Amino acid sequence: MGVWAAPGRVNIIGEHTDYNAGFVLPIALPMTVTCRAEPRADDLVTVSSRQRPGRSVRVAVPDLAAARDSVPDWSRYPLGVAAQFRARGLRIGGVDLDLDGAVPIGAGLSSSAALTCAVAIALRDLFAPDLTDLTLVDIARAAENDYAGAPTGVLDQSAALLCTPGHALFIDVRAFTRGFGDTPAHATRERHGHADTDGRADARGRAATHEGADDAAGRADADGRADAAGRADTHQGADARRRADAHGRADAQSHAGAQSRADAHGHAELPTSTGPGVVGPGSDPVGCEQIPFDLPSFGLELLVIDTGEPHRLADGEYARRRAECEAAAAALCVQSLRDVADPADLDRIDDPVTRRRARHVVTENARVLEIAEKLRTGANPRDIGPVLTAAHASLRDDFEVSTPALDTAVAAALDAGAFGARMVGGGFGGSAIALVDRGRADAVIERVRERFDRSGFRPPRTFAVRPSAGAHRLA
Question: Rounded distance, CA 119 to CA 3, Å?
């Protein structure tokens, strides 16, 4: 028996680059999801949640794959992790999983990855202690993709498992994911084989996500946009756009210099990690680097602004963006958009929408490299502010995943003195971040609240965060 915790995450920079084999730079949040796990004498996996009292779910270990379509949406996340252990030939027994979460649900802060990673390290410690951190990342990702039906990349799970306090985690996704599937050959196997996880989600991501399935949240309809957002009038929306643009939107060429530090195909792979993972045995995964991100030393705070619009990945739009990126890569005859180093090459894409999607990914990769280099060399974090704001403009205009409330949050924060601000997460709702002087934090929060009230949005939730620890055992 024990208690394990895994954090939510916020991405400093690098949205929609992970599933394009690119670069990301997340931090772990201080808020976590906890999993209290206790082995059972029988073969039942039981799942309960403090957020859903009286709604526990029970599935026999041999039935995990077949049960996917018959269990409640929220339970597919923890059960999907158990199903992935079995699908990989790892012996697990019956176990009680009691979940509790402090990561805001629907805020785009990866509460679902925190949940799957908390369960993953619990099952690892109880049943398969030789599993590497890299394998746990793949297990948690596959649980979300294949069992819960959320078409995520590896950003969220990697951050939840590998981040360290006071650091941002730079990940070269292509190098990092080459080691997936390296389940130790000596791990204990099921005596009677195992079934693959069936009921895999289609490309549209048809199943509800953990955030979307939370009927207690009661925030908004399935398109991920709060009704209040539609009450912002045209002039307010245009004003938010102009203000974000005025604080540092960069065009496709402005960050090409950072991308050029990679080789001609954008391959800037890291040989090793410079810092240890928080959980698991073995060496650090290739393709990771812990980069200092010490905001208090510079008198800074990173504010999270939760708009109250629930962020959802499985309503089809996220999967559509993935398909558009794949179409762009095919049009350019490259393996992924990671392989495009020169934004001018995008002119070869005929479809204007596909071209804009690709432009975001290519320039976002360059922005990740630029910020990582600034932080790596000890620059004042204030210097990354304009790059954050440029990323928001790209997500809003080229990738089209922002909302009026997110645009308003960014514009209000910048007006109040933030050095940079942008939406975070997959988009279509959720949260924004703002990099501010510690002494200006209250003024920024007040300005955002005033602007939300004026625009008819529900009051936002705001809080400061610091880079925190990845998944770990509490007791």
Answer: 10
**Cα separation, 423 vs 433, whole angstroms:** 6
DSSP H or E segment with residue 374: helix 352-376
One-letter amino acid of 233: D
Q: Quick count: other Cβ atoms within 10 Å of Cβ 102?
A: 15
d(CA 269, CA 247): 32
Per-position DSSP letters for 226-262, written without gaps between them: -GGGGGS-HHHHHHHHHHHHHTT---TTTTHHHHTTS
Write down the H helix ranges in 52-99: 76-87
Question: Cβ distance 390 to 374 under 8 Å?
Answer: no
> Tokens standing for 419?
């050095």
CATH class as words, domain 2-216? alpha beta
Q: Which residues are catalytic?
A: 156
pLDDT digits (tens, 9 = 90+) for 320-368: 999 999 999 999 999 999 999 899 999 999 999 999 999 999 999 999 9
Cβ neighbours of residue 54 closer than 8 Å, sequence gap 6 or more: none
> Judging by DSSP bridges, how do beta strands 23-39 and 2-13 pair with one another?
antiparallel
**How many whole angstroms separate alpha carbon 328 and alpha carbon 129?**
41
Residues 382-399 have pLDDT tens digits of: 999 999 999 999 999 999
pTM greater than the 0.90 cutoff:
no
Looking at domain 227-266+294-465, its CATH superfamily turns out to be: GHMP kinase, C-terminal domain (3.30.70.890)
Any idea where the domains of the chain sit in the sequence?
2-216, 227-266+294-465
